[in-house]
Amino acid sequence: MELTAKGMGVRIGKKEIVKDVSVYVKKKQFVGLIGPNGCGKSTLLKSIYKSLPPQRGAVFLDDIDVLKSPEKKVSQNLGVVGQFNEISFNLTVQQMVMLGRTPHKKLLESDNQEDFAIVEEALTRTHLLEYKHRGYLSLSGGEKQRVILARTIAQQPKFMILDEPTNHLDIRYQIEILSIVKQLNIGVLAALHDLEMAAQYCDYVYAMKDGEVYAHGTPEEVLTSATIEILYQIKCQTYTNPVTKGIGFAYGL
Ligand SMILES: Nc1ncnc2c1ncn2[C@@H]1O[C@H](COP(=O)(O)OP(=O)(O)OP(=O)(O)O)[C@@H](O)[C@H]1O
């Protein structure tokens, strides 16, 4: 599915947090959203996935008008991995991931064999099979993050939005999570803090500053030392990372 978010504007109180931002994700593209703390990435994403109503703008997933469509129709197509995923009741990992099946079910319809198979597959992909019967609340931050991804995979969305999905994760799992998402081969819009990961996984990048799109293009076009220096107010030099062969970054104040 393709995502078009056009002319998004979000005001919270008197402050304009997102100012006329448009982003476009082509079919099966992995698109990154970068920018400094507080520049409006999460707010923009929330306004796209209906968690925060924008004052202006329209969002389309193919021909589905996301902001005007019922929740169920949107969640049959759009999966979201947000930044904070705390719950206060203790479901098992399997029960948590099973929640991903909800948009595909009728009210009170029970879980069938196909649902269990889909959940099993999602747990396998995220290396969580052995955690299946553990309580979600007993997991570490990184394990919880993987459960949320597994839940979103079980939802079988045709498009995914991720808000800093590698928060809490050690380096190996950061790479794994982005690889798993990439392998889903669906359209993805992800806010990312790690610029090397963005360079490695994104087909296209939007850089935000002060609630606006400051630059957009391929990673090579956007992730230049000049742009990074302006975005983050630091000194930066790029080089070829000897391990990934992608763009590497050296930073300083
Ligand atoms: N409910 C709110 N009330 C007041 N200000 C808010 C609210 N939500 C967000 N903001 C402000 O909007 C700005 C943008 O926040 P947002 O979370 O979108 O930034 P971000 O780019 O995702 O940052 P980070 O990289 O730190 O996650 C920040 O200055 C934040 O304090």
TrEMBL record:
InterPro entries recorded: AAA+_ATPase, ABC_transporter-like_ATP-bd, ABC_transporter-like_CS, P-loop_NTPase
GO MF annotations in UniProt: ATP binding
Q: Does the keyword Nuclease apply?
A: no
Kindly name one Pfam family recorded for this protein: ABC_tran
Residues in the signal sequence? none
Q: Which UniProt keywords apply?
A: ATP-binding, Nucleotide-binding
Keyword ATP-binding listed? The answer is: yes
Query: Which residue intervals define the domain ABC transporter in the entry?
Result: 3-235
Q: PANTHER family, alphabetically? A: ABC TRANSPORTER ATP-BINDING PROTEIN (PTHR42794:SF2), HEMIN IMPORT ATP-BINDING PROTEIN HMUV (PTHR42794)
- Protein name per UniProt: ABC transporter ATP-binding protein
